[in-house]
Design a protein that fits this description.
This protein has nine helices and 16 strands. The chain is α/β, with parallel strands linked by helices. The chain folds into two domains: 88 residues, Beta Barrel (Elongation Factor Tu (Ef-tu), domain 3); 159 residues, 3-Layer(aba) Sandwich (Rossmann fold). The strands form three sheets. The chain has a seven-stranded antiparallel β-sheet with strand order 6-1-2-5-4-3-7, with helices on both faces. Strands 11-10-9-8-12-13-16 form a seven-stranded mixed β-sheet, sandwiched between helices. Strands 14-15 form a two-stranded antiparallel sheet. Helix 5 runs parallel beside helix 6 and helix 6 packs antiparallel against helix 8. The radius of gyration is 18 Å and the shape is globular. It starts with a strand and ends in a 6-residue tail after the last helix. The mean pLDDT is 87.
Length: 282
């Protein structure tokens, strides 16, 4: 069993958990992920390592409650244990000798962007973080990003906090003001990463995207995370999750992912009904 040491609700749909696992904490790099199972017969899901503490032997995961398994995971409390936890998996983000980087997180993608921003800052890079949310109630990790960034910009779709608009609006504004970025890291919804990549292509700025949103089993066996990169088939879990945003065929992935939305929604609603009618954890 892998014991949950801490659980914090970051907003109405996003939860942070700290889990004891000395081996994973010792080896984890920014951008890598774990595979976990809530119980013996449960689904295996990949979640990015949001942070780790090698001294205490703990890792943190941040997840959005969007489906059956994340609902069951959120039902666990401190001192409960996960049935299985495997990692770190995937290739860690390459933190080269960048001078200035823009790190962009959309929604819960900020949880993946944060360890990258933290590692860049530790490596001497000037970090500008741009975080996008639908509204102020969904903002997460603002203080954490401030601690590792020279500049932090918050955008909201409805203008309830920070700049009203999209992360691409803020990125474009900073570029037009003369900010010269060596690299842009973009993590979030597929359409957001696509739009960021199209913008940076025009300015010839290297762009790295994390394809975590399309991973399923995390081992390359299911083929669900396949994508076309520069005309070649890759798998996000074993070849990534980081890829050159200018070479990813986003349209193909977005179209394929839309196929499963209704199935996932029905599964989630069924699980919520089960929880509402049961006095104990599933």
């Amino acid at each position: 069993m892998y014991t949950i040491l801490d659980k914090v609700r970051l907003n109405q749909t996003v939860t942070k958990m700290t889990i004891q696992d000395e081996k994973i904490a010792k080896k984890a790099k920014p951008g890598q992920f774990v595979i976990l199972q809530v119980h013996e017969n449960g689904e295996r899901i990949p979640l990015t390592i949001a942070d780790c503490d090698k001294d205490s032997g703990t890792i943190s995961i941040i997840f959005q409650i969007v489906g059956t398994t994340t609902k069951k995971l959120d039902n666990l409390e401190v001192e409960d244990g996960l049935y299985a936890l495997v990692g770190p998996l995937g290739n860690g983000t390459i933190i080269s000798n960048y001078t200035k980087a823009a790190v962009i997180g959309g929604g819960v993608g900020g949880a993946i962007a944060y360890p990258i921003a933290k590692a860049l800052e530790k490596n001497g890079c000037e970090v500008h973080s741009i975080l996008g949310f639908r509204n102020k109630d969904l903002i997460i990790l603002q203080d954490e990003f401030k601690a590792v960034s020279k500049k932090v910009f918050i955008t909201t779709d409805d203008g309830s906090f920070g700049h009203k608009g999209l992360v691409t609006d803020t990125l474009s504004d900073q570029i037009n003001k003369g900010e010269s970025y060596d690299v842009v890291f973009a993590i979030g919804p597929l359409i957001m990463m696509k739009c960021v990549s199209e913008l940076t292509r025009k300015h010839n700025i290297k762009t790295v995207v994390s394809m975590n949103p399309i991973m399923i089993d995390g081992t390359g066996m299911c083929g669900g995370c396949r994508l076309m990169v520069d005309g070649k088939m890759k798998f996000a879990c074993v070849d990534g999750p980081d890829f050159d945003g200018h070479k990813v065929d986003f349209d193909e992935i977005i179209n394929r992912n839309s196929i499963y939305r209704d199935i996932e929604r029905k599964s989630y609603e069924k699980t919520c009904n089960l929880f509402n009618n049961m006095p104990t954890n599933i």
